[in-house]
Design a protein that fits this description.
The complex is a heterodimer of chains A (about 240) and B (about 400). By secondary structure, chain A is of the alpha/beta class. Chain A has a single domain (about 35-55, about 80-240), classed as Rossmann fold, CATH 3.40.50. Chain A has eight helices and ten strands. Chain A has helices spanning about 50-55, 80-90, 105-115, 120-135, 150-160, 180-195, 205-210, 230-239, and strands at about 5-20, 20-35, 40-45, 65-70, 75, 90-95, 170, 200-205, 215-220, 225-230. In chain A, the strands form two sheets. Chain A has a six-stranded mixed beta sheet with strand order 6-7-8-3-9-10. A four-stranded antiparallel beta sheet of chain A has the order 2-1-4-5, covered by helices on one side. In chain A, helix 3 packs across helix 4 (about 120-135). Chain B has two domains: about 1-55 and about 270-400, no CATH class; about 70-255, no CATH class. Helices cover about 55% and strands about 20% of the residues of chain B. Chain B has helices at about 1-15, 20-55, 85-90, 125-130, 145-150, 160-165, 205-215, 230-250, 265-305, 310-315, 320-360, 365-395, 395-400; strands spanning about 60-65, 70, 75, 95-110, 115-125, 135-140, 155, 175, 180-190, 195, 195-200, 200-205, 225-230, 260-265. Chain B has a six-stranded mixed beta barrel. Chain B has a two-stranded antiparallel sheet with strand order 2-3. In chain B, strand 2 (about 70) and strand 3 (about 75) form a beta hairpin. Classes of the chains: A alpha/beta (about 240), B alpha+beta (about 400). The interface between A and B is medium-sized, with 29 and 22 residues.
Chain lengths: ~240, ~400
């Protein structure tokens, strides 16, 4: 059933939050497919449902109705423990606020997903060092988050997201807290990783960031209002 | 295994980061465990004191005392008296192997030179040493020749000896009781206490000198100690003695006994039972300290979970399942209470030593009590850490990640 190469398949996904008496419809029937190797940007004004969508894509949350297949596996009905295992094996997160664990070295932060994924200790070391090298922070392995700049912290977060070799990397405003130089570094790394085959979904309201994607999906009021490739722009930039 | 090591690392790191808070929280456990250990040690010490005491005093001893009774306004003719005839009647009972009548003056001042002391004088017969398992530390016991020659001789208890002849050898010295002088021939070996009586603050002289000379009265005695063959004989012998004495004293059926019959070992045990109440109370206080300590741990863990809400969210987002989170926090509270338990064991040993030194109580610290105390502390940590850990495990990852 699953077309080869599709990583994410959402079909008629809705999400309703009940805030006391009032039910808030955060997502109304969202369907789309993300293929292997895509770099998808999800855009939309605040309140459009993009954060809710990211929570569902990352298996942090469950859709109220609809189906979500991740690499062919129906994950919308899994319980909390099973979803945690899906997160451990298939998903890498990068947040706007970096979200490194305090008082814990860059090395230990990057190692953490491997611990939860049950990767044996002897294998972890080489993978952590490899991931840190990937983001250019081999020299900073023993630094604590407080000893790193914002850009460096975000690169550690990217290494942490990559280290489990996830099926998809989900980023929530990854450059939102960064100055333009650091943001550029982070985006360059993301593009390189994407070229190497990492399927990537970026939630952003920055069109500069979105222009780096291969496809932009726009949300408004819980619905997809447009879904277009950005090849023309990329070609235009190249020309 | 790899996960467990990670949990340990996180737990120790979290406790180190807030070490003073952790220390204060663990204090409840320290106090609880320490008091349980100290109370158990004092208890075990008292227990062994009882068995030592019974061993020193000798088993299978029954004490018969005359008692005052009043029926209406009349007193019986035999009040407070065990007569030589009574002693003879008791001696005839088949279960009784030896009878030692004695007459005591329970408080009097005796002197040697310028030193004097208040003590308890017992006039005894040669049978006394046998019945009461009396031994000497120096010199000799009263002998049958002392009695037959009517010698004015004396055996001193350890306390009386110390007070009259501190540091000197009392053998051959003279002790004055009223106008009568006695030559010290022996010092009794340590006897310990019987209920609240210090059996070492005693002096022993031949019975006839007490009844005849010191008290200037007739041949009546007030007390008789006697020995039976075995422990199983104690109860029936006590019944037989009662029957014999009632018939000796010609008591009408409606009159109460004008004497008492007691088993010496049960006096010792009874005296200890009184302090048992106190120990149970202290034990309960130790338990309450542990309970309060446990609540303290729960409180600290709830605060810790709250403070680390975002960290929990991060861990969940990178793949920690509820069980991982729960185990992490359970290990943290277990580590905290276990450290408290270890400190409590050390504090308990120190407290027990202090009690031995300053209160002079015998104490016995047993390894099992230390092990049990340790595991109780661990159990408290797990029990009171459970709810906070569960709360952490159930946090919604999205809400936790957004938490500021």
């Amino acid at each position: 059933m699953t077309p080869p190469g599709s990583i994410i398949e959402l079909a008629d996904v809705t999400k309703v939050y009940s805030r006391g008496e009032v039910a808030v419809q955060a997502l109304r029937s969202v369907s789309f497919v993300v293929h292997e190797g895509e770099l998808l940007a999800i855009m939309g004004p605040s309140g459009s449902g993009k954060t809710t969508l990211l929570g569902i894509l990352g298996c942090l949350d469950r859709p109220t109705t609809g189906s979500y297949r991740l690499v062919g596996q129906e994950v919308s009905t899994l319980d909390e423990t099973r979803r945690a295992h899906v997160r451990a094996d298939r998903i890498g997160f990068v947040f706007q606020a970096y979200n490194l664990i305090p008082r814990t070295s860059a090395y230990k932060n990057v190692e953490l997903p491997l611990v939860y994924a049950g990767v044996p200790a002897r294998e972890r070391r080489s993978r952590v060092l490899e991931a840190l090298a990937e983001v250019g922070l081999s020299e900073r392995a023993q630094h604590l988050p407080t000893q790193l700049s914002g850009g460096e912290q975000q690169r550690v977060a990217i290494a942490r997201a990559l280290v489990v070799r996830p099926s998809v990397v989900l980023l929530d405003e990854p450059t939102g807290n960064l100055d333009s130089t650091s943001a550029e570094e982070v985006l360059t790394i993301l593009e390189r990783l994407n070229r190497q085959g990492a399927t990537t979904v970026i939630v952003t309201h920055s069109s500069e960031v979105a222009q780096r994607a291969s496809r932009i999906l726009r949300l408004a009021d819980g619905l997809i209002v447009s879904d277009e490739p950005v090849e023309s722009v990329a070609l235009g930039a190249a020309g | 295994m790899t996960m467990l090591a990670e949990h340990w690392r996180i737990a120790l790191g979290a406790l180190r980061a807030n070490w003073f808070r952790a220390f204060l929280t663990a204090l409840g456990i320290v106090i609880g465990v320490a008091s349980l250990i100290a109370v158990t040690a004092v208890s075990a010490g008292a227990q062994s004191e009882v068995s030592n005491s019974i061993r020193r005093l000798g088993g299978n001893v029954i004490k018969v005392d005359g008692e005052f009774i009043s029926v209406g306004t009349r007193q019986t003719a035999t009040d407070r008296t065990i007569t030589p005839e009574d002693v003879a009647a008791i001696a005839k009972l088949p279960m009784v192997t030896a009878v030692a009548p004695h007459q005591d003056i329970e408080s009097l001042v005796v002197s040697s030179g310028r030193r004097q002391t208040n003590t308890w004088l017992a006039g005894v017969t040669a049978a006394y040493a046998d019945v009461q398992n009396q031994r000497v530390e120096a010199g000799r016991l009263l002998s049958s020749t002392d009695f037959s020659f009517g010698r004015s001789v004396m055996v001193l208890g350890l306390v009386a000896s110390d007070r009259l002849f501190a540091g000197q050898d009392p053998i051959g010295k003279t002790v004055r009781v009223g106008n009568q002088e006695f030559e010290v021939v022996g010092v009794q070996a340590r006897r310990g206490k019987l209920a609240d009586e210090n059996l070492d603050n005693r002096i022993f002289v031949p019975l006839p000198l007490v009844t005849g000379v010191l008290l200037g009265g007739g041949p009546n005695v007030v007390h008789a100690d006697l020995r039976v063959r075995s422990e199983s004989d104690i109860e029936p012998a006590m019944d037989e003695i009662s029957t014999a004495l009632r018939s000796q004293h010609k008591l009408p059926a409606s009159y109460p006994d004008d004497f008492s019959v007691e088993d010496q070992a049960s006096i010792v045990k009874e005296a200890q039972r009184a302090t048992t109440t106190f120990r149970v109370l202290t034990f309960a206080l130790g338990g309450i300290a542990l309970l309060v300590g446990g609540i303290g741990i729960m409180n600290m863990m709830l605060v810790s979970v709250h403070e680390r809400t975002r960290e929990i969210g991060i861990r969940k987002s990178v793949g920690a399942d509820p069980w991982n989170v729960q185990t992490q926090f359970l290990i943290e509270s277990a580590v905290l209470s276990t450290l408290g338990g270890v400190a409590g064991v050390l504090a308990g040993i120190a407290a027990t030593r202090a009690i031995s030194t300053f209160a002079g109580w015998q104490t016995v610290i047993s390894l099992p009590s230390l092990v049990v105390a340790f595991f109780v502390a661990l159990g408290v940590g797990l029990a009171f850490g459970f709810y906070p850990a569960r709360r952490a495990a159930r946090l919604d990852p999205i809400a936790a990640l957004r938490y500021e």
